[in-house]
């Protein structure tokens, strides 16, 4: 890399950095699972939410000046941030601030894209936070990363904009921004979601993809956003509009995720997941119950914090000796399991499973009640659902499609409280439960 002769001081760099987590997206490919909550607020891993990964990465990286930009269905996300992430000492200039869409340009303009979400908060960023560097993150991915390493690389390279990148298969790459870099990691080309993704040199089946993580020199960010807002036919998007400008101006560099990844699997491979579909959300949760999981949620060296619910211990009561008990599963606090078989599943807090039921390869969100003699296979059961006695889900595909949401692959069945109420002929009140 070209650039500075003197190595940047990590302490000074993180102190001069503001983090903006973009957490306003719905996650439409998750269908009814995000009807009441933004995707970053979705539950994950037994007692966390997806946004806890980005927030924990910040804290573990020493980055304690954080703004969370929200928009869609933000109530549960805001409550989670208030209850679980308000511990940073404001008197030391550390904070997790919430930046909801406030229609700051005029009375009809919400955030029109990722770049616009930052632009509409630019006066606050510039005049109140006064950072030297701005780190922009997506709030809806599962991974562990030391952002301070990315910041140090950004400064050492002489870049004004650095994009985090990851190697993906060419089949997957059409869902990402894809780039090519030189030997100094300077970006030479960038294409947003190409139909025919270009391959990496020497790796014909692999493309270099943007992770949606960006570091900007603050002054450059202000300038490029000011210019962008007056550009006709813009999408107000970092990938579609801002990165191509930085590329054209010769100030765009790449940061390989492998340099700062803090969560590798047992084979030493980097771990990063976009849990943006029912199948990927289900699979990423189910992966956690394996003997050697892809993601180590017990790693004390890089802990993933959250807002764990205060519960009584879980209770397992077996009077029928012929029932196969809990096997290879994650069970959170406050659950009551009575003569029921649980295998290869993730149960969040306050789940009740009654006599004679079996739960296999399923993700059960908080405060679900599963009645007697039920069979659940390959399910995602949304919060507050009550499964009637004798219900079979994941057994008859045709019947599942009539009653519930089946994933695009046909493998996973989503069940929500509203779906169950519709089957029983009653309506569910949107005000009855807080997510």
From TrEMBL:
Task: List GO BP terms, alphabetically.
Answer: glycogen biosynthetic process
- Any Pfam family matching the protein: NTP_transferase
Pathway listed:
Glycan biosynthesis; glycogen biosynthesis
- SUPFAM superfamilies hit by this protein: Nucleotide-diphospho-sugar transferases (SSF53448), Trimeric LpxA-like enzymes (SSF51161)
Is Transferase there in the keyword field? Answer: yes
Could play a key role in the communication between the regulatory and the substrate sites (site feature) positions: 71, 110
Q: Glucose-1-phosphate adenylyltransferase/Bifunctional protein GlmU-like C-terminal hexapeptide domain: from which residue to which, for each copy?
A: 313-413
Q: Does the keyword Nucleotide-binding apply?
A: yes
Q: Write one Gene Ontology MF term.
A: glucose-1-phosphate adenylyltransferase activity
Summary of subunit composition and partner proteins: Homotetramer.
Task of the protein: Involved in the biosynthesis of ADP-glucose, a building block required for the elongation reactions to produce glycogen. Catalyzes the reaction between ATP and alpha-D-glucose 1-phosphate (G1P) to produce pyrophosphate and ADP-Glc.
Its protein name is Glucose-1-phosphate adenylyltransferase
Q: Which gene encodes it?
A: glgC
